Each structure stands twice: as structure tokens, then as C-alpha cells.
């Protein structure tokens, strides 16, 4: 299954394992909660989906790459103890708690999360001395003399033999005690994730032209050459940073992430073209509805790669606007909920406004620290909470500067500030909506009802942030073209069916 299907299956399994009956006991007894064994190629996102699942289920996550461990760190160190058997004293060997098991208990103590996932990566690549210990763990969920606590689900991940020479095959006894899931790479599914993570537009544009270069692992006379999903994501981060710093992105820079010389060179060349198209085609003018006629003529006669690149530039800019609108909306929702708390405090507490604000700031800072420690914040949630705390500090500062000693006066000031922020948000929505409609108009005037418009529409549909925006604020052109596309597809299906019937008669 692909990474999306895999995530759904693992999440469903974990929810089933953690479901309790009316007596508070797990519906599926712990001994029947099979460890999940996730097998798939490296760099495809196995660790990332475990982090997402833990956040969505609001449970803990302890993650280890097991190849970094020795037998001693996995099962604990031996120690000598005295024990009595049938009235006689004996010296016996016991073991300290496994570092891995101890980490689970520490996670529980530090976060208050009593349930979670113990994720062990590269589980089938352990050393010869550790292999029996791992088999025992998968079969009995114990390291040495210590078991993982109830409510913690074991998920192991490994690479198939074709990707790693040191892979060890599990025997039937072990495989009969795990829930095995086979994972394969899938560009179209990964692209959905890439939009959410806001990967660089040049990467999405390049892979749309050359999908076969998304994931490759092959042997050559110079050794292994490979490109993985992880490589593209990390390359995206460095591209953004280099652009901010105005540093050149050379082929050597790209090779650090795409460890396949031919693909690295190909992308580096494409990236230069992408920058050229960004300069030649004034995207902001298109979004503002001010595109000049010669640009439309130039694009109409351009090659396929160039047309697709310009589409990607448009989508990339729109995607940034959609994301900013989404983030502003989430921030204002969270701020509004917090200001309701502030209003209640001001109405009922007999303290000065700045003292009340200090108490609320302390609460929010603790919430941020706790959620960060527990791993329950994604990037957007973390940014929203950080911005919220900064805004609360700003409100407190303004209360002090303006010497607002009365609670009702202080809240009136805060409300006025919030109303201005809501107005800014509405202006952002209006600007983004206009940019989207102007993009459709530009493409209609340049290409008419063509394949380029279909590509544009399809990419909008596959982007989480664009669909969130269109779903909440609408788009006349999107609805019109989407209905037209659906009608066209239905008409084509009917024509195909008629043609089949003709052939049968």
C-alpha cells in the first residue's frame, strides 16, 4: 500500500488496540495486540507518518533507530543480586532496565501521556548479537526482564533486502506474531504531503515533468546512486534558505540531497530555468490582473516544459497566499478563544489587568512547552501558539504603556486591536480571492479551454490549502471549470461505453 493508505491502516490499528470496554480494560488484550511491522524502501516517510499519527491520536511517541544500539543498551546491563530459594541464599544475575524501556517511562513521566507508540526503525538490520533480543521483543514485547507498559504499541520498520545487504529475514514464528504492512513509493500520494509541507515550487514542477525521477535506488560502477522522498524534502528546505540568503544553488549543492549524479545535474539545470521563468514572467502582475499582452503571446508559443513551469510559479505563489490565509484564520480562532478567557478573567478577578495578562501568558507558555515536549504540535500549530503568546505579551505591554488600570478599559483596547486584525484578515481573503480569479482569467485568455487549464485545476484540487480556501470562501471560476471538467469526463465515459457496445454488436 502507499504511504497514505499505510497511515490510515496504522492509525486504525492503534485506535483499535487502545479501545477500552466498559470496565476500563483494553478490548483487545495486550498479548493479542500484535506489533506492527512496516516494511518499505528507505527515505519514503515511515518516521514522518508515525509522528503524524501520534499527534492526531494525542498519544506519546518514543522513536529509536535500533541499529544504533548494542545488546547491552537494549536489554540492560547485568548486575549481581542475592536471592533466597527454599531457605538458601544464592547469587544470581539480574539486569538493569533497558534504555529503550526506560525512555518510554520517562516519556510518560514528562508528558503525562500514559499511552503511545514505541517506534523502532531498521528493526531487521540489527547486529548478530542483538538479533535474538529483537526476536524476543517482537514475540513477547520485553527487553531483558522488563516489558513495555500497557497502552504502548510497538511499531517496527525495516527495509526489504534489495535496499540493504545487512537485512535479516524474520522466521515464521516471529512473522506469525506481528501485523506486517508492505509499503511502496507513490508520487501522487507524496505530492499531497508535499503541498501541505509547502515544498519548493521548483521541485513539484520538476517532478511533474519527470515523475520517474521521484524515487530511484540503483547500483552503478561507482556504488549506490539514489534519490528518495526524504532527499527532495530536505532539498526544499535548503533551497528556501539559500534564496533568503541570496546564495547560489549549484549542482554540488543539489548532489548533497539527490545522490544520483544524472538527476542532480538535471534538476540543477531545471532550477536555473525556473528562476529565469520567475524573472521573465511577472507572476505578481498576473495575480493582480495586469499581465501584459506580450507575456500571453510568449507563453502561448512556449514549449511544454516552460508552460508547465509558469503554471507551477502561479500555483506556488497562490499556495503561499492560501497557506497564509489558513494560518491567519487558525491564529485568529485561537486568539479569539483566548480573549474570551481574558474577558472572563477581567470580569471576575480583582487584580490589575497586567497581572491577569501575566497569569494567562504563563498558562499559554506552559501549554506550549508541554505540547512541544509531548510532540503534539505540527508546524502550523506551533507557529500559531508562538504568535499567540507574542501577541499576549504585546497586549500586556500596551496596557502598561497606556496606563490602563481598569479592566473594562483594558479589554476595550484589546478588542479594538483584535477587530483591526480581523479586518486585515478579511482584506487578505479578498486579495487572495482576486489573485485566484485573475489567474483563471489569465490562463483562459492565454490558452482557452486547454490542457493547461485542466492541469491548473487539477493541482488546485490536490492542494490541501487551496481546497480549504475555496471551500470556505468560494471561487466562481473554479466551480465553473470544475463542473465543465466533470461534464467532459462523463461525456467521454459515455462515448467510450457506446464505442465498446458497437464493437460487441
Automatic annotation (TrEMBL):
Query: SUPFAM superfamilies of this UniProt entry?
Result: P-loop containing nucleoside triphosphate hydrolases
Q: Which residues form the AAA+ ATPase domain?
A: 32-185
| Signal peptide span | none
UniProt cross-references to Pfam families, sorted A to Z: AAA
Q: InterPro entries attached here?
A: AAA+_ATPase, ATPase_AAA_core, P-loop_NTPase
Q: Which GO terms describe its molecular function?
A: ATP binding; ATP hydrolysis activity
> What residues form the membrane-spanning segments?
none
| Name of the protein described by the UniProt record | AAA ATPase
Source organism per UniProt: Lachnoclostridium phytofermentans (strain ATCC 700394 / DSM 18823 / ISDg) (Clostridium phytofermentans)
Amino acid at each position: 500500500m502507499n504511504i497514505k493508505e499505510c497511515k490510515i491502516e496504522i492509525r486504525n490499528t492503534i485506535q483499535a488496540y487502545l479501545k477500552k470496554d466498559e470496565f476500563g480494560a483494553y478490548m483487545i488484550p495486550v498479548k493479542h495486540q500484535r506489533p506492527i511491522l512496516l516494511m518499505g524502501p528507505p527515505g519514503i516517510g515511515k518516521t514522518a507518518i508515525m509522528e503524524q499519527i501520534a499527534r492526531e491520536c494525542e498519544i506519546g511517541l518514543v522513536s529509536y533507530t535500533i541499529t544504533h544500539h548494542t545488546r547491552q543498551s537494549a536489554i540492560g546491563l547485568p548486575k549481581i543480586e542475592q536471592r533466597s530459594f527454599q531457605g538458601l541464599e544464592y547469587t544470581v544475575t539480574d539486569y538493569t532496565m533497558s534504555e529503550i524501556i526506560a525512555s518510554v517511562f520517562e516519556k510518560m513521566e514528562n508528558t503525562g501521556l500514559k499511552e503511545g507508540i514505541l517506534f523502532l526503525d531498521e528493526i531487521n538490520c540489527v547486529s548478530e548479537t542483538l538479533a535474538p533480543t529483537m526476536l524476543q521483543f517482537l514475540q513477547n514485547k520485553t527487553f531483558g526482564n522488563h516489558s513495555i507498559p500497557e497502552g504502548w504499541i510497538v511499531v517496527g520498520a525495516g527495509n526489504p533486502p534489495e535496499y540493504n545487504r545487512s537485512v535479516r529475514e524474520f522466521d515464521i514464528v516471529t512473522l506469525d506474531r506481528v501485523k506486517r504492512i508492505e509499503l511502496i513509493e507513490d508520487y501522487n500520494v507524496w505530492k499531497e504531503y508535499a503541498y501541505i509541507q509547502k515544498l519548493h515550487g521548483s521541485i513539484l514542477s520538476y517532478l511533474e515533468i519527470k515523475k520517474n525521477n521521484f524515487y530511484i535506488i540503483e547500483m552503478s560502477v561507482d556504488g549506490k546512486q539514489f534519490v528518495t522522498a526524504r532527499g527532495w524534502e530536505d532539498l526544499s528546505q535548503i533551497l528556501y534558505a539559500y534564496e533568503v540568503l541570496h546564495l547560489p544553488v549549484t549542482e554540488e549543492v543539489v548532489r548533497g540531497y539527490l545522490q544520483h549524479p544524472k538527476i542532480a545535474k538535471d534538476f540543477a539545470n531545471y532550477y536555473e530555468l525556473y528562476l529565469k521563468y520567475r524573472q521573465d514572467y511577472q507572476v505578481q502582475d498576473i495575480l493582480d490582473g495586469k499581465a501584459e499582452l506580450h507575456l500571453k503571446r510568449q507563453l502561448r508559443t512556449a514549449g511544454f516544459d516552460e508552460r508547465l513551469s509558469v503554471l507551477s510559479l502561479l500555483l506556488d505563489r497562490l499556495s503561499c497566499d492560501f497557506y497564509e490565509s489558513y494560518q491567519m484564520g487558525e491564529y485568529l480562532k485561537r486568539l479569539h478563544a483566548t480573549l474570551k478567557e481574558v474577558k472572563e478573567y477581567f470580569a471576575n478577578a480583582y487584580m490589575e489587568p497586567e497581572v491577569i495578562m501575566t497569569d494567562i501568558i504563563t498558562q499559554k507558555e506552559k501549554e506550549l512547552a508541554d505540547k512541544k515536549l509531548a510532540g503534539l504540535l505540527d508546524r502550523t500549530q506551533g507557529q500559531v501558539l508562538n504568535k499567540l503568546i507574542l501577541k499576549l505579551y504585546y497586549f500586556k505591554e500596551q496596557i502598561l504603556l497606556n496606563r490602563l488600570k481598569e479592566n473594562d478599559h483594558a479589554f476595550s483596547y484589546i478588542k479594538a486591536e483584535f477587530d483591526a486584525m480581523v479586518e486585515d484578515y478579511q482584506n487578505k481573503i479578498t486579495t487572495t480571492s482576486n489573485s485566484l480569479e485573475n489567474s483563471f482569467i489569465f490562463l483562459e485568455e492565454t490558452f482557452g479551454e486547454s490542457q493547461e487549464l485542466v492541469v491548473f485545476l487539477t493541482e488546485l484540487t490536490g492542494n490541501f490549502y487551496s481546497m480549504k480556501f475555496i471551500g470556505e470562501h468560494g471561487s466562481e471560476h473554479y466551480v465553473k471549470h470544475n463542473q465543465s471538467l466533470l461534464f467532459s469526463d462523463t461525456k467521454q465515459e459515455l462515448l467510450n461505453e457506446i464505442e465498446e457496445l458497437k464493437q460487441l454488436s
